[in-house]
Write a structure and sequence with these properties.
Rossmann fold, 13 helices, about 5% strand, elongated, binds tryptophan, binds iron/sulfur cluster
Amino acid sequence: MNPEAPPPPRPRVLSGMRPTGALHLGHYHGALKNWVRLQSSHDCFFFVADWHALTTSRPDRATLERNVYDMVVDWLAAGVDPEQATLFIQSRMPEHAELFTLLAMSTPLSWLERIPSFKDLAERLPDSASYGLLGYPLLQAADILIYKAAQVPVGEDQQAHVEVTREVARRFNHLYSPEAPILVEPQALLTETARLPGLDGQKMSKSYGNAIAMREEPAVVEEKIRTMPTDPQRARRGDPGEPSHCPVWPLHQLYSDEATRSWAAQGCRSAGIGCLDCKQPLIEAIQREQAPWRERANEYLANPKQVHWIVEVGTERARAVARKTLREVRGAMGLSY
Ligand code: TRP
Ligand code: SF4
């Protein structure tokens, strides 16, 4: 082997999150943990999808900015390393909008109209659905294709969008660069972790009021877990319960080792332990998990300029890649005059 040979390039990964503000444990276990894992083996691009947030809501200006930076602080707190991964903000990248416009010319309207998330939202929104909402999966395709990402870590709800992205790339290559394809068809990288339900057993979501924030105060974590509903059959301490009917149980599956789980399951079924006993190891495990996040987040919160700088550097790094793809796309379409 030639010791001088450069290491093979790391496969490129791209993912984005809507700026919903401070993140909760569902975000961490459903996505962020996976980002942190990928960053050492892959060339990761992670971005704040702030334009996407505007397709379904109209946050006021102060809220939008706060949501963006609260989320970035939580990425950093979770261990996303700006030395390894490229972090940036979508709205700072007009290049995405240009590619979106160019791809729009070869994307059939029917591909966007039939996307399930559009149909659902269009029916539920109070005002009529916007053009931006219809175009959002194509904007997402531009987000991905402009970096020639090989893999896109997403939840199940986003799989259809990665599928459309592949079709958009295939069609573009077929129409404009059949000999030497320019755009790369990405693979969805489905996050395997089981979804972490919220405090009431429904999907964890800030808007349902059933979330534990990543930076929740330890006393609040304790209070939230202690007041969580349990198996309705276990109304009294002496009633035996069934873990699989209890919203607390998924937390044990995520946070407890085998020994603790069998202690809890057995104690529940025999009424040998009370629900507060059962919850105690979870409170401690969550607080232990959060301690390093809080420490890192506090450093960044005390130094907001550093967070801005990290995003600044990432945005320029991303822009260099995006510009190169755009040059190729413009050339293929005959727009390089
Ligand atoms: N649409 C995604 C969401 O709502 C966010 C997103 C935008 C994204 N562009 C992306 C995710 C590109 C992965 C790749 O959660
Ligand atoms: Fe749920 Fe644990 Fe109570 Fe059983 S003992 S009902 S698993 S909280």
